[in-house]
Amino acid sequence: MSVFPRISLKPEVNDYLKNVFLNKELLAAVGLQEAESRFQRLLTCLAHPPGHTCVRASTHLAPLMEIRHKLEEELNKQQMCGASTGEVSVKILPHPSIPDVLLLPVTGPRPVQQLSSEVVVGAQCGSAVLRGAHVFAPGIMASPKFMKSGDVVSVFSDLEGKCTRGAKSFQGKRAFLGNGVAEMDRSSIFCPDEPAKGIGVRMVEPLYQSPSFDGVLPSLAFLQNLPSVVVGHVLGPCPGERILDMCAAPGGKTCHIAALMGDQGEVVALDRIRNKIDRIRQNAQTLHLHSIKAYCFNSTQAVNSSCVSLCPVHTAGPPFPPESFDRVLLDAPCSGLGQRPNMAVTWSLKEICSYQPLQRKLFRAAVQLLKKGGVLVYSTCTVTLAENEEQVAWALDTFPQLTLQPQDPHIGAEGMLGAGLSPEQLRLLQRFSPELSWDQADMPTALPGKANRDTIGFFIAKFLKN
């Protein structure tokens, strides 16, 4: 079913990942042929969007079925007003085991005829288009010389970042995303006086059909990958608790934690980049959540070791005394190699491997800040062993007070072989591995099977501090 090239990686990164997926433990368990097949399927599926769009419903504001009904009305209204024709009404399904998730099946790849008039967008913009977005003007890199508003164009993604902004054509490595109608003249898009804003091309025949959520029920429907929603439930926040989200931007998981607590308690969100703190606060405001306190702070320095038990537990802001929090979420900065769709990664191997030391610094701070009897959840959106199972093995060896805990819900696969963990330990981990079922990705599968398997690559570990 592949209409894209596989994800484009630097040769050194490709070899590194191949060694991960052909490690000795895994080869002994599944054999060379199956291990090779999994790796090749991974490279293919990463370039495609997941089979469902996942919406986290704000069930702290309204019942799930009420939100589902309103969302159907809004998306069907949007579809009737759009230029696409012959589409059936939007189908929205509640997830059978996660009470605040709605799923919208994604249709594609569809047979779309390429046109002679071509617009080229950046890779990040291209990934958003594959998940239902229109093309916003800042993402456009090249367009025909005389393109006018109303022209029908084919949209392509620049896979290697080599297209010069303002170009009139581009023949480099690219991928076809579908057809759309220009909403702006070329002169408006590449205006030298001020940056262009708004929709540059409205997609009418996307390769993957998925509704656009721009401005749709912003307080009730939050777009979030399914594994990212699972993380909040695994953390298991309770009303009245004090919870820390260590690397919180843009705030999706932070807001989910507050919603699961019924907005009763305190959720402290930290991020070291100031403008990202504004995004967290905006999301909290949009979702009508008041228990979130966001601070611009480096979480590796979030422990005030000089402050002993005599210090007040609720320090106004970071750094905090040890054992200040009932639960800690460490959704760690990572190489992001599980994100989908992702048609090209231009990072070097040095960059890919640079995250493990930072993750360990953050983990040390997390353990110190967690109360005895508290829960720590560690997660990433990558597929490497070094950032996932190897970090768990290191943590269990470094912090004897930590024990792995069962996860609820557990809808992903178990942990991956290769880090020396026992079968029992691997069963307690949750790894979302789309490559395990990718060869059946275009076969009809009943929910929740397909939605649970055809996700981004993601990893979750849950610890109890004894």
UniProtKB/TrEMBL annotation:
Record: residues binding S-adenosyl-L-methionine: 247-253, 271, 331
Pfam families: Methyltr_RsmB-F
GO annotation terms (biological process): RNA methylation
Keyword entries, A-Z: Methyltransferase, RNA-binding, S-adenosyl-L-methionine, Transferase
Catalytic residues as annotated in Swiss-Prot or TrEMBL: 381 (nucleophile)
Entry's Gene Ontology molecular function annotations: RNA binding; RNA methyltransferase activity
Superkingdom of this protein's organism: Eukaryota
Signal peptide: none
Family to which the UniProt record says this protein belongs: Belongs to the class I-like SAM-binding methyltransferase superfamily. RsmB/NOP family.
Descriptive protein name: NOP2/Sun RNA methyltransferase 6
